[in-house]
Amino acid sequence: MTSSEQVQAPPALPAPGGTADERTALEGFLEQYRAIVLRKVVGLTDQQARRQLVASQTTVAGLIRHLRWVEDAWFVEVLDGGRRPSWRDEDPEWQFRSGDESLAELINEYQQACERSRTIAADHALDDTGQHWRFGAVSLRWIYVHMIEELARHAGHLDILREQLDGRSGFD
Fold first, then answer.
1. Which of 105, 114, 98 is nearest to 151 (CA)?
2. Contact 14, 25 (CB under 8 A)
């Protein structure tokens, strides 16, 4: 794939019902924000995704790359006990750089990371814990809340960047 236009936007997802059980609510909001992130970037060109529009080095491509690694950090490394990549300590800003991948490749990698996260989470109860190098023991419940916060924050960043790139704005 050479262009994000070959990637289909996921359908808009409604928020979970107001009386959903805890796990359904947490997973529902997480999935809603995963879909929003993708809907914010589908249709952009690789050149647009790499454009630096703010004072920091933040780009659409860098944010998608970061979110791909955030999925692995919390679900593969922390919850499932996977090995922490050395770049996290040697060059933690690496994950925010646009890199050489096309936006379509970054989106595909992000979707694969989300699927790994879903598979790992499905094998755990909300009270199951993993060890984080800085926070110590964290439960799946905590990881879900943190991931919702992380995705919502970066969806806002993506919304601003997208509006600057082509005028498209809005919650979804």
1. 114
2. no
Please report the beta strands in 2-142, taking only residues with DSSP state E, as ranges in sequence order.
129-132, 136-139
| DSSP per residue, 128-154 | -EEEETTTEEEEHHHHHHHHHHHHHHH
How many degrees, rounded to 5, is the angle at CA 28 between CA 49 and CA 147?
55
Q: How far apart are CA 62 and CA 64, in angstroms?
A: 6
**Domains present along the chain, CATH in parentheses:** 28-166 (1.20.120.450)
Burial class, 12, CB count within 10 angstroms (exposed 0-12 / middle 13-18 / buried 19+):
exposed
Q: How far is CA 22 from the centre of its chain?
A: 21
pLDDT, average across residues 11-22: 86
Give the pLDDT confidence of 112-170 residue by residue, as tens digits.
999 999 999 999 999 999 999 889 999 999 999 999 999 999 999 999 999 999 988 76
Beta bridge partners of residue 119, listed in sequence order? none
Q: Which of 86, 76, 84, 82 is nearest to 112 (CA)?
A: 76
Q: How many CB atoms lie within 10 A of CB 81?
A: 9
